[in-house]
Design a protein that fits this description.
The relative contact order is 0.13. α2 (49-59) runs parallel beside α3 and α4 runs parallel beside α6. This protein has a single domain (3-221), classed as Aldolase class I (TIM Barrel), CATH 3.20.20. It has an eight-stranded mixed sheet. The longest helix has 14 residues, at 135-148. It is 31% helix and 20% strand. β4 (91-96), α4 and β5 form a beta-alpha-beta unit. The protein has eight helices and eight strands, in the order ββααβαβαβααβαβαβ. By secondary structure, the protein is of the alpha/beta class.
Length: 223
């Protein structure tokens, strides 16, 4: 564990939550907002589970739950840590990129909510993820969540460089039949080049209309 946010009003829907950040990731997205956490986690102080649990115990009167984020949390053995959080009496939300479906399946009975990122349409997924991944793992994680009965959401940060408008239909196919899908405005991470551009809100609304044909609840964040 490489970071701790004592309180957030936006990371766990309808709940006040602390956020625990895990270092490292099995993706290398060019548009990542936490590059140092992913690429150089040793820059951050290493937090022990005991320290984090003590902080949660101390703050539990002011919190509803905890978000496990990253980086990619499923790279770590989280089961016992989650069980101890639950003993404190808090809800647990897991953020994941879906590239570790086996770990996701193992952790699902322990968590209360899962948010999975969907990076792009199939043809551009490897470019958006920055690694030569097996797309079947992403599809398996999506299927696991859809069939889990656990509250969850899929979400996409809409980066024009990796999600052109002509890909909207095929992107939404990933989450067809899902309960909740959120489209997130991209905040440019560079001052020049393809990663310096974000869509206007009207384009995000257009994607939302495409998604509403296949997903029950669709929202837009960040505009």
């Amino acid at each position: 564990m490489r970071g701790f946010l004592p309180q957030s009003l936006v990371d766990y829907p309808d709940n006040i939550a602390a956020v625990v950040f895990f270092g490292g990731c099995n993706m290398s997205c060019p548009f990542c907002y936490n590059k140092d956490l992913v690429k150089a986690p040793d820059k951050y102080e290493k937090l022990t589970p005991e320290w984090v649990l003590n902080e949660l115990e101390r703050r539990k009167k002011f919190l509803d739950g905890v978000v496990l984020s990253g980086g990619e949390p499923t790279l770590y053995d989280l089961a016992e840590f989650i069980k101890k959080i639950k003993e404190i009496g808090m809800l647990v939300k897991l953020d994941t990129n879906g590239l570790n479906p086996e770990a996701l399946e193992e952790l699902l009975p322990l968590v209360d909510y899962v948010a999975m990122d969907v990076k792009a349409a199939r043809r551009r997924y490897k470019d958006a993820a920055g690694v030569d991944l097996d797309i079947k793992k992403i599809e398996k994680s999506i299927k696991i969540l859809k069939e889990s009965g656990r509250p969850h959401e899929f979400r996409t940060t809409v980066v024009p460089a990796f999600i052109p408008e002509e890909d909207f239909d095929s992107l939404v196919e990933f989450v067809e039949g899902a309960e909740n899908y959120y489209i997130q405005q991209y905040r440019p991470v560079k001052q020049a080049g393809p990663l310096s551009k974000a869509y206007e809100p009207a384009i995000l609304e257009k994607l939302a209309e495409v998604a509403r044909k296949k997903v029950k609840n669709v929202g837009i964040r960040g505009i």
